[in-house]
Amino acid sequence: MLKFKSLRLLIFSTLCCATTNAQDSNLQLWYNKPAEKWTEALPIGNGYLGAMIFGGVENDRIQFNEATLWSDGPRDYNRKGAYLYLDPIRKLLAEGKQKEAEELAQEHFMGMRSNEEGYEARKKEWLVKVKGDVIINSSQWNNAQWKDMQLPTLNGWETAGLEGLDGAVWFKTTFTLPDSWQGKDLLISLGKIRDLDITYINGKQVGSTEDITANRLYTIPASILKKGTNEIEIQVINYFDKGGFAGTKGDREIFAVYPKERNGKESVKLNPVWQYWVQNDDAPAMPRYQADYQPFGELQLKTSVANATEYRRTLDIANAVSTVTYKSGNVVYTKEYLANYPESIIAIQLKSSAKGRLNYNASFTTVHKNYRIHAIDGHTLALDVAVKNGAMNGTAYLYVDNTNGKVEVTDKEIKISNSDEATLYLIAATNFKNYRDVSADANAICKAKLVSIKKLVYEKVKAAHIADYKRYFDKFSLQLSNGAANAGVPTDERIKQFSITKDPALVTLYVQYARYLMLSSSRQGTNAANLQGIWNDLLTPPWGSKYTTNINLEMNYWPSESLNLSACTQPLFKLIKEVAEAGKETAKEYYNAPGFVLHHNTDQWRGTVPINASNHGIWVTGGAWLSTHLWEHYLFTQDKSFLQNEAYPVMKAASDFFVHFLVKDETTGWLISTPSNSPEHGGLVAGPTMDHQIIRELFSNTIEAAKVLGTDESFRKLLQQKYDSIAPNQIGKYGQLQEWLQDKDDSSDTHRHVSHLWGVYPGKDITWSNEKMMKAARQSLLYRGDDGTGWSIAWKVNLWARFKDGDHAMKMLQKLLSDATAGKGSESGGVYPNLFDAHPPFQIDGNFGGAAGVAEMLVQSHMGYIELLPALPSSLQSGIIKGVRARGNFTINMQWENGKLKRAGITSNAGNNCVVKCGDKTVTFKTVKGRTYSLNQALILIQTK
Ligand code: FUC
Prior knowledge:
Elements: H1 2-16, E1 28-31, E2 42-45, E3 49-53, E4 59-66, H2 86-94, H3 98-108, H4 119-132, E5 147-150, E6 167-177, E7 186-194, E8 196-201, E9 204-210, E10 215-220, E11 228-238, E12 244-247, E13 256-259, E14 268-269, E15 273-280, E16 297-302, E17 309-316, E18 321-328, E19 331-340, E20 345-352, E21 358-365, E22 370-377, E23 380-386, E24 393-402, E25 406-409, E26 413-419, E27 421-430, H5 442-453, H6 458-473, E28 477-480, H7 491-497, H8 505-521, E29 547-548, H9 552-556, H10 558-562, H11 570-591, E30 601-602, H12 622-637, H13 640-661, E31 663-664, E32 671-672, E33 676-678, E34 681-685, H14 689-709, H15 713-725, H16 771-784, H17 790-802, H18 806-816, E35 830-831, E36 837-838, H19 845-858, E37 859-860, E38 866-868, E39 879-886, E40 890-897, E41 900-908, E42 914-918, E43 921-925, E44 932-936, E45 941-944
Parallel strand pairs: 38-42
Antiparallel strand pairs: 1-17, 2-3, 3-4, 4-16, 5-15, 6-11, 6-15, 7-10, 7-12, 7-13, 8-9, 8-11, 13-14, 16-21, 17-18, 18-19, 19-20, 20-27, 21-26, 22-23, 23-24, 24-27, 25-26, 28-39, 29-30, 31-32, 33-34, 35-36, 37-38, 39-40, 40-41, 41-44, 42-43, 44-45
Helix pairs in contact: 2-3, 8-19, 11-12, 11-13, 12-13, 12-14, 13-14, 14-15, 17-18, 17-19, 18-19
The chain binds alpha-L-fucopyranose.
Pfam families: Glyco_hyd_65N_2, Glyco_hydro_95_C, Glyco_hydro_95_cat
InterPro entries: 6-hairpin_glycosidase_sf (IPR008928), 6hp_glycosidase-like_sf (IPR012341), AFCA-like_C (IPR049053), Galactose-bd-like_sf (IPR008979), GH95_cat (IPR054363), GH95_N_dom (IPR027414)
Organism: Pinibacter soli
């Protein structure tokens, strides 16, 4: 008995340790084949560099990014004098003239685009040139220049060898006219074409359309048809982004010719392989509101290996190391890939178990049109890239350190032969200095770094990397009941088989993977994690892979405090500081107001103005929302000097803006936010609920912060006055929380954004202390339904946790973990084989939001107390969580069994009073900084250490 007791005590005291070492050995993604698609490849990163490991045997691809390589460059985004239109827009909205308000705003209130001035004239001139340059079927058409392309190319001709091409491309093919069709008019169906086509049959134009959404269906008059073979030539002109034949939706027949009046389905199907010729790849730069995050290049490792067996590709997220192993005959080959943060390098170690059997050709490729590959010295190859139509360039070096065998470097590649061990170090730099300055010398940076790289020893690089990573990663662990039932199944297959009852360990893997992704994409001194973290292979990635601030950027950082990665927020805070600087001018030019404003997107150049379209780009609370992250950081860390020096000045400036921006609504007398938008829903309006919730929270945070700092008493009073007058949350006719000032919600509307529920999560404007409002918010979420894009589902996980409905939260999490390759449609989130979140396409916010949601089910602390197991799903009956963080600077370890708390250890890192709730029990106790307080299942304090 005594023995048993002391064993129990031992287990208990291990549980109560604030930090954890014992990591679940199942923290691994693994596959029995190399990646073919990008979303099968495995991500590594150190915040500066990111890479996707395909892990091929004979052809390995390591597609990489440098976080500061973006399109465009520093420039003024502000439309001067926009504020002159503020009152007229407000007036139109107040009169219920939304369409007129949007039109006026579109013309005078959107930001300045790059290359805006004179673009139309340049485009016209270029079009005249490319249209006139070619005479159909003339001898200028050098046949040798024509290549084959399989059509359609659904994601643009960029996926068929024309990466980054904006310009004019000719396509041709032929068809044979059936004798019975002679004398008949025909139709040719071509589907969608991006952007403009000029279609000829036998040299005669039969149609031309400029519209990326239109299905091309042209009449071919019988008079131009020939007996036998007929020629189709199409000039396709693409100004920007995806080009070419984009196919069609549904079962429309395309790439077919048939009689205008046909019998049944008779048609001639065109051969899908057409010939193409690039006539011009120099379309004038298209004006853009904001910049795109850019890919850098790809490192290719080629070798020849006969009959590889026992192939395995892994990503060990407990150590942040990826591996590929296989056998050929008796020789075992291994490749190890890691992204070391302290050295800011990617290291790849290649090994063969037998001497002289390691032979590789390492080379670079890139999707940038302007590039150069050249030898630096006998061990180093360089890739220089310059971003098209932009101010940025970059340099990457690949350095080889081999223990034996031979290394040769040419201007094309590095050849490693007859070796058994070699290490490749990849470094990269750009000319980025800061958001206003691109005068750095990428080449010189790489050159200088090469000197230190030459002194590195792989084993030390690896050990330092693991130590650095574990310092953060090991602060948190999670074990869920039933162990790792399915960890023996390759991860792609495991996702397909996932059910929470059979494989709760996949939830653990998913949560820890989010932490891995954060540590790999957002570290002290790096850029903040963008829409794709740090991983992107496209020149025009979805939504620019930038920073969307009406949900996405904030969601990226939702788990950072609760899941014990507070240090990873530093790049976000730097971004906030910079948009607060840049957004001052926007506040002035657009609203004639002090403080700063940020609208719904920003980029590396810290654009803060409205972009895209006035029906969703004019949304004023981006900066206010981001400012709440500063206050939250203070709540979690209790770091007063951070509050004083970094947080408060920004919070105050954000508040200052809204003090001036809010106006009195004539009908209700409330202060409202106008013009604005309930993100991407319902157009430009006066008084969206979300804005008011955010502004209220901003004001109350700023008041609290000023109190903590003992400052700005009169400003505090002013904020309180304003706070009291802001339009309140309202319950509408369906018992819903109104999304807008007027009761105009549609209960059948399943829009992905759930903006008016901001006050429930991530905000605390609505809590269970106002049960009526909380229920109305829940009703709104029920109307919105359970489906949505990845981030939308992730948001719903958190919302259901705040509604204290663990089972519904888990239902959402299961959706988030569903197989994205099953083709469920564009508004249906899930995960790819590499566990990347699918919006679809890939967008990293869902990974982060989902992980935050799991924490929110287990511990909440937004009400001034710590609540243990507030929304425990019935499918997670038992578990142990260690290192989860709560506001007030507490770190919590907790075990639960049979759906009930078993014990908890709460470490007080700041000496604050502690209030803990679980079920209907509450305990309050004073704490001493550095002590750990152990509570039993009845919340009785049983030990202090
Ligand atoms: C918002 C969302 C979209 C997408 C984009 C990056 O605009 O509405 O769904 O996530 O951001």
